[in-house]
């Protein structure tokens, strides 16, 4: 059975597993983290295992992802898809889980399984960077590490993102290397989904104004083919 994650990852792994899939520049840190197709798939497998085996996410479920531009966001997106769930980018009454960050936690209901994603440039767990995790909330980066780097899905959902399938998200124009700048953008999950569904790769730039000179320098260095 092919989940949305399989549909995205299988061609990329077959073509060039070492190719960069997501590159994240944090100009405020400053830092540069790059994940290959294989590394991103490994993170996605761990997150899918956490969602299915510990959180109880099942194929066809809905998971809200309210996340900023960060390299781990790609792993979360693919991990939810691999678990067979649909990603929603806005509030959803039928959601079984919410994945967000500490600074966005108050936006979401307290009666739903909640996982917090780290925004640390190196992906360190929240406790390691001095962020308090409320009782009953899961530190995603800490909890997913014990899960395997491979994942065998239990089933697949009908939709990938906000009611659309991977095929509906795909756009041949996005098959290149795309620049996405601005941590505070609220469309990052949707933009990443479109890039990945199209077989493209993403360069995320945070820690600076989208029009700052440093962003243009990144675009040139990474030879991005388009800006979103």
What does this structure look like?
The protein has helices at residues 4-15, 37-55, 71-82, 140-143, 166-169, 188-197, 213-221, and strands spanning 20-26, 31-36, 62-65, 86-88, 95-100, 113-116, 137-139, 177-181, 201-206, 226-227. It has 228 residues and is α/β, with parallel strands linked by helices. The strands form two sheets. A five-stranded mixed sheet has the order 2-1-9-8-10, sandwiched between helices. Strand 3, helix 3 and strand 4 form a beta-alpha-beta unit. The longest helix has 19 residues, at 37-55. The protein is globular, with a radius of gyration of 16 Å. The model has no long low-confidence stretch (mean pLDDT 95).
Question: How is this fold's topology laid out?
Answer:
Blueprint: H1 4-15, E1 20-26, E2 31-36, H2 37-55, E3 62-65, H3 71-82, E4 86-88, E5 95-100, E6 113-116, E7 137-139, H4 140-143, H5 166-169, E8 177-181, H6 188-197, E9 201-206, H7 213-221, E10 226-227
